[in-house]
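job 3f2a | input accepted
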Amino acid sequence: MASNPNPTPTEYIQHHLQNLVLGIHPENGLSFAHSSEEAAAMGFWALHIDSLMWAIGLGALFCWLFKKAADNVTSGVPGKFQNFIETIVEFVQGSVKETFHGKSELVGPLALTIFVWVFLMNLMDLVPVDLVPRLFAAIGIEYQKIVPTTDVNMTLGLSFSVFFLMIYYSIKIKGIGGFLGELTLQPFSSANPIIKVLFIPINLLLEGVGLIAKPISLGLRLFGNLYAGELIFILIALLPWYLQWTLSVPWAIFHILVIVLQAFIFMMLTIVYMSMAHEHH
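job 3f2a | predicted structure (281 res):
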C-alpha cells in the first residue's frame, strides 16, 4: 500500500493481512519480504517481526502495570487502579481455585499472565485498521500487523508452550510409567494380559491423537476468532465513510465480548490441562 496509493480491494486486503517478515530469501539473502511470495520463499524460519514486537511490547506493558500496582499497594482504601488490578487477580484466582485441584505455585501466575497478555493482544483489534500501517508506511515500513493473535504462529506458540508444560508436569507428577500408562492402557482395557497388550497400539493411537489435538485446537480457536474479527474490520474499511461508522461501531462493541471471551477460554483451558497433568489416574 505504501508503494500503491490506490490499491484495489484485493490488494488492500492482502496488504493488511501480510506480516512484516524477516528471513533468508534464496535470491536476496537476509532481508524483509516485499510480498507474500517472498515471505513464503523464506520458509519456516522466517520471523514475523511485527507480531513479535507487539507481543513483547504488550507483555512488557502487562509486567509494568502490575508491578506499578504492587509497588503502590496500600492496606487502606485502595485507589481505582489498585482496585481494578485486584479485581483481575481475584477473578483469576477464583477461576484457578474452582478448576485446578492439584498443588502448584505456577498455575496461578501462569493463568493471570495468559489472561491479561492474550486480552491485551486481542484488544489491539479495536485500533483502526489503517492508523498504524499508515504511520509505519510514513517511515518506510511497508507492512505492519498489530494484532499478534491474528498470527497463527503466535497463537500456536502460546498453545504449544502450555502443551510442553502439561507434558512436563504429567511426567513429574505421575512418573514416566504413569504418563505412558495413560496413553496406552485406556480407554480399552481387559483383565486378560494378552488382550491388554493387544489394545496398547489402539489406545496409543486414540490417546495420542487426543493429546496432540489439545494444543492445536487451543491455538487455532484463538487465531480463528481474532483473524475473522480483523478481516471484518478490513472489509468494513473498504466501504464508504458513512457506512464505515454505521457498521464498525456496532461490530467493535460486539467484538469486545469476543476479545474478553477468547482470553478467558484460553486461560480456562490452560488451567484444565494443567489440572489434568497434576491428577493421578
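job 3f2a | The chain has a mean pLDDT of 90.
job 3f2a | closed
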